[in-house]
Amino acid sequence: MIERIIEYSIRNRFIVLVLASGLAMAGVYAVLHTPIDAIPDQSENQVIVFTDWMGRSPREIEDQITYPLSLKLQGLAGVKTIRSSSEFNFSMITIIFEDRINFYFARERVLEKLALAATYLPQGVTPYLASDATALGQIFWYTVEGSNQDPSKLWALQKFYIAPQLNSAGGVAEVATVGGMPLEYQIDVNPTALRSYGITLGELEAAVSRSNSAVGGRVIQKNNAEYLVRGVGWLGASSETPSGDADSETRVRRDIEDTVVTERNGTPDHSCLPDRPKFVGNSITSFLCSNFSSAAKLSFMGVA
């Protein structure tokens, strides 16, 4: 048999050369076009669903979120198994599909089920999908550093400038920010002083929330032109600031100090007399009189 193959090859050299050239070209094409991973992805075909419910224990999350959501997701086509984990403040459900199921088809089917989640989950709870990348998809880690830089500014630089630019790069599924210290403004409340003025903590929270918003109005027609009317009430956006208040944090503090928490007979009280409660703050927020005696001081702290 071997002798016949050798004899045939010698007698048909042209055919042998053509076949050898074809195999060589096919090998070069395979080398150039075959995807190669430095670390092969051996993970299963899975879709992860996260659900946040702040301030709840794992038992409550298991009973009201994880269990009913897992039951609804079990009926999807191609589901092999479902694994779940209930932790403090959040729930994580991993739906493992069969290998023959397309990854993006599986995500679409899960999204269809999650669209109806509001009908059987607690009010205000919205489940969402994890990014379409596996645990082996982490390709680059970096830190944002700067000498004599405020940590909150570094966090804002990462969130609003660096991360969007990286997200726009081809093949990037997600830029996950770990750590950082976002700027926060905290209000320390004296419950006794609130009760003495007949104001609840909910009213105070609602007043602070209303102080940071923008509203739209109608249009004014003049000389065949329309002028849009809008009210800008964002914290720190006021153009009428005293001299020396060019810093944005200073403007934000001043705007929160001037927040109207409540009113008397339809008029907010702006006085600073000791015998009249001040409902627009003097030093930090509300109820602060000029002598600082027995006042409900809502101290203000910037976390950076």
Question: Would you give an account of this structure?
Answer:
The protein has 304 residues and is an alpha+beta fold. The protein has 4 domains: 2-29; 46-135, Alpha-Beta Plaits (2-Layer Sandwich); 139-181, no CATH class; 187-237 and 247-303, Multidrug efflux transporter AcrB TolC docking domain, DN and DC subdomains (2-Layer Sandwich), CATH 3.30.2090. Helices cover 34% and strands 18% of the residues. The chain contains 8 helices and 8 strands, in the order ααβαββαβαβααββαβ. The strands form 3 sheets. A 4-stranded antiparallel β-sheet has the order 2-3-1-4, covered by helices on one side. A hairpin with a 2-residue loop joins strand 2 (79-87) and strand 3 (90-97). The termini are far apart. Mean pLDDT is 78; it is low at 269-304.
Mean pLDDT: 78
What characterizes the major β-sheet? 4 strands, antiparallel
Biggest sheet, spatial arrangement of strands: 2-3-1-4
User: Judging from the principal axes of the Cα atoms, what is the shape?
Assistant: elongated
Which parts are unreliable, with pLDDT below 50 for 5 consecutive residues or more? 269-304
CATH architecture level-2 label of the largest domain:
2-Layer Sandwich
Strand composition percent: 15-25%
Alpha plus pi helix count: 8
Helix content: 25-40%
How many beta-strand runs? Answer: 8
Total domain units: 4
- This entry's quaternary arrangement is single chain
**First-to-last CA distance:** 83 Å
Q: Which CATH class of the largest domain applies here?
A: Alpha Beta
Radius of gyration: 32 Å
CATH topology of the largest domain: Multidrug efflux transporter AcrB TolC docking domain, DN and DC subdomains
